Model the fold of this input.
Amino acid sequence: MGLLDKLSSLFRLKKREVKVLVVGLNNSGKSTVLNHLKSDDDKITVEPTVGLNVEKFKHNNVGFTALDMSGQVRYREVWEHYYSDCEGIIFVIDSSDRLRLAVVQEELELLLQHPDTVGKRLPILFFANKMDARDALSSVKIASALNLHRIINKPWHICASNAVKGEGLDEGIEWLTQQICENIRKE
Amino acid sequence: MAFKRDKKEEEDGGGNIFLNLEKTSVLQEARTFNETPVNPRKCTIILSKILYLINQGEQLGTTEATETFFAMTKLFQSRDVILRRMVYLGIKELSSLAEDVIIVTSSLTKDMTGKEDLYRAAAIRALCSITDGSMLQAIERYMKQAIVDRNAAVSSAALVSSLHMTRIAGDVVKRWVNEAQEALISDNVMVQYHALGVLYHIRKSDRLAVTKLVTKLTRSPLKSPFAVCLLIRIVCKLLEEEGDVALSESPLFDFVEKCLRHKSETVIYEAAHAVVNLRRTTPRELAPAVSVLQLFCSSPKPALRFAAVRTLNKVAMSHPAAVTACNLDLENLISDSNRSIATLAITTLLKTGAESSVDRLMKQISTFVSEISDEFKVVVVQAIRALCLKFPRKHGVLMNFLSAMLRDEGGLEYKASIADTIISIIEENPDAKETGLAHLCEFIEDCEHTSLAVRILHLLGKEGPRTKQPSRYIRFIYNRVILESAVVRCAAVAAMAQFGASCPDLLPNILVLLARCQMDCDDETRDRATFYYHILSGDQPQFIYHYIVDHLQVSIPSLERALTQYVANPTPEQFDISTVPVSAPEPTNVPEKGHGTVDIANPVAVQPETPAKAAESYAVKLASIPELAPLPGSLFRSSDPVQLTESETEYVVKCIKHCFSDHLILQFNILNTLSDTLLESIGVTLEEPEGYEILKEVACPKLSCGETGSVYVLLKFPEDLSLSVSTFGATLKFVVKDCDPTTGEPDTDEGYHDTYMLEDLDVLLSDQVVRVMKGNWGAAWEQAEGESFFELEDTYVLTSVTSLEQAIQNIVVFLGMQPAERTDRLPQGKSAHTLLLAGMFRGGHDVLVRAKLALAEGVTMQITVRAPSQEIAELITSALG
Done:
C-alpha cells in the first residue's frame, strides 16, 4: 500500500460517519456502554431507556451514530424498524444473568433471521457485559451457550466488558471500526 | 384561465411548492429520512410537506403514519436545530395517528433536560402529546423541574402541557400544585398567566380552594395583565355562583371595579366586559364600566374601538338607558373608516335611540350597507327586527329598507335573516301584513335560494287566504309553477291548494290552475296537483279540512322510525298512522322586546333539543329496557324532569313521567352524591292512589358515588278518567354499603336497608295532553261541531290571578295545550280576551278549548271544551277548577 493510498484512505476515513444499532435485553447495560464511549461533557446518569435514544461518539476518526434501543419487552419489536439502515450491530449481554440467556438466544435468532439483516454482511459485536460480577460467565461460555459459531455469513466478535469502568469496550469498538471500514472499502 | 394562473404564479415568485401535493409521493419522499448522513435542508422541506398535508385534512392510515413516524425518529441523529424543531412538530401531529409513538420518550426527555434551550420547550410539548396516563409517572420528575425552570419558554410550555394532561391524568397533574404555585410568582407575563390557569384548573372543582386562591391573588396584585384577565373571569364565575347578594357588597366585585383603573388596556376592557355581562349588574355598577368603554370609543386603536362598540352593542339590549350616555361618541363612530365599527355603532344607536332618529339612522346605513360583509349585514337586520318590535309604527320605513336589502346581492344566511325578520314583523304587527307579504312575493319572483322560496310559498299559503284580497297572491304563486325547479313547483301547488280550500269564491280558478299542473313533468308536482284537484273538486268539506287545511301533526322522527319498522317486518295489517306519537309544536320563542337580537358573538345560540327529538330519544331508551318490553303501545308524551328532592341532598331524585295511551311509566333518575356509600337494589315504593294499578317495577341494581341510575315503575291509568289526575307518595328504598371513597370498593359485604322520603309526585292533566298546532283553529272548531263532539261549558272566577296575561299563562300551563292563532298574546289595554287552545289527549283524542276571559275582580273565565268523549271534556273543565 503506497503512501498516497494510505493518505487518501485516511482522508476518507476522516469524513466517515457510520450508524450502529445497540440492542440487547433490558438491564444489560446498553446505555451505560454508550455513556462510557461518549465524550466526557455529554455524560448523563443512566436510567431505563424508553423507546430509543440517539447518541454520538468518535473512535479513530470515525464518527459513530449509535441508536440506543430500549431492551424492555414492549419495545423489542421496535428494533426491526432500524435494521435496514445500520452498518453494524452491538449486542450487549448481561453475562451474570444465566436465566435469561435463553431469551437472549431467542432475540438473537429473530435478529439474524429478519429479512433486513439476513443477506447483509453486518458485523455484530457482542459485549459479554458485567464481567466483574461474581457469578459472571466467561465470554467463551456465552459464545457456546448462544451457539455463535453457527453464524457464518456475518463477521462477529465477542469480548468481555465492564461498562461501568470501561474495561474491554475499546477492544470491541476497535474491532467493529475495522470491520465496518473493510465493508466500506469493499463497496 | 390557466394562462391567468400562470401569470399570477410568476408574480408570486416561483409559485407555491405546497400546491398540488400528493400524499403517496410525499410519503415516498419521506424515505429520505433513512439516509445517512441526514440532509437537514431536504428533510425539513419534506417534513413541512407532511405537516401541510395533515393540516389540509389529508387522512393518513395507521400503517402510513407509523412508517412515517419511525422514519422520522431517525432524524434525531441530526444536530440541525431547525430540523429537530420540525421533528417535534411532526411528532405532535402524528402522535394520535401512529402506533408505538411512545418510543421517542427517552429521546425527548433527553432534549427536554439538555442544554440546548431551543429544544427544550418544544420537546416538552411533543413529549406530552405522546404520553399516556401510565407513562406520565415516568416523566413526572422532569415535568416538575420544567415547570419551575428559569427559562420562561420552558416553564410556559410545561404549564400549558400540564393543562392538556389533566384530561388524561388529572390526578397526576394535581400533584404538581406546589410547582405551579412557584411559577405563579414568576416575573414573566406568560408564565404567570399559564400558572394561574393550571392552578385554577386543578382546584376548580373545590369551591373553597378557588375562593382562597382568588382572595389571596386579589390582595397581592399580579404583574401579568393576562393573569389579571383570567383572574377577573374566575372572579366573575364566583360572583355568579354567589347568589342574590348585591354586587356592591361583595369584596370580589370591588376587585373587578378596581381593575377598571388598571394601567393595562386589556385588563380594563376585560373588567368592563365582565361588569357588563354579570347577571346581577344594576345601573349603578354599570355606569363606571360604560364610561370606560366610552373612553375606548375615541381611542386611536381600531381594535379598542371595535371591542368597545361591540360590547356597548350587547349592553344596549339589556340596559339601553346606560348606553344612551354614549350616544354622542357612537354618532362619531358612524363615519369610522372601519365598516365593522360603523355598523356596530349604528345598530347600537338604533337600539338606544328615540323613534325620531330612526329615519336619519336608516338613511345613514343605506349609504354603506353594500360595502359591509354579510355577517354585519345580518347584524343590521337583527337591529331592524328589534326596532320593529319597539316602534311598530315605523314598520313602513323599515319594511321598505328591508325589501331594498332583499333585492341586493347576498348569501343565503343574509337573505334568510331578512325573510325571517319580515315574517316576524308580519306576525307581530297585523298592520304590516299586507305590505310584508307583497315584499315577499316580489322577492320570490327572483330568488335563487330554493329553501327560502319554499318557506315563503308555505307562508303565503297560510296567510294569503286570510287577507282582504287573496286573489292578488295567486299570480305570484302560479308564476313559480311555470318558472321554477321541481321542489319550488311542489310548494307552489300546495300553497295554491290552501287558497282553494279557504276561499270558496276562488275555488273554480284554482281548480283550473291545478288541472294545468297535472301536466307537469315532475312526478311529485303532478301527484300533488292530482291529489289536491280531486279533494277540492270532491265537495266533501271534511276531507278538505283534514287533508289540506289541517296539516300532519305526528312527530317526523317517530313516523320515520315507525315506517322503517313497518317495512322491515311486513304484516298483513295496514300501517296505522294513529299509533305514531303526535309531536308538540316547538315553543314559539318570539323574543321579548329589547332582547330581540341575537348577539353577534354567538349568532347561533345553543338551541335546546326540540321536544320531538327528546321524545324520540326517550322512546328509544324505554324500548331498550328488556324488563319493560313489550311497551304498552307507543310513547305519547314525556314530561320534563320533576325534582323530587332538594338539589343539595344525599340523593338527588328526578322523575320523568312517560305517558302511553292507557299506561304510565315513571322513570326515577337517582344520583348518589355520597362519596363513601354504595347503594344496591334501589327501588321506589309508591303509595298508589285510587284507580291506579302498578304492573311492573324495574329496580336499579347498583349505584356508586356520582353515578346516576334509573328506576322504572309501570302503571295502568284508572278506567275512570277523573281519577287519573292524582298524587303519589313516593319513598326511595335501598341497601347501603359503606365503601372507601377513593377506590369505591365496599368495606363489607353486608349492608343495611334504608329508606328515603321523596316529595309527592303529581300526575297532572298536562302530562296526558300533547300540544297540537292548529293552523286554522276556527275551521277545526266548526269541524268538531259537525263530528259529534261533546261540548261542555263552565264558568269560573280565577281569584288568585290579577291580570289577563297571568291568567293566560296559567291556563296554558294547566291544560298543556297549544294556543292557536296567537291568542296567547294580549293586545294592549284590553279588559277581555278570548284564548283558543288545541291539544290531543292520550289515546289520540283531539281536544279544543275556548276560554273567554274578562278582567273584573280577579279574572272571570267562561270555558268551552269540545272533545270526542264526555269524560275527557269533564276532566278538562275540572282541571281548572
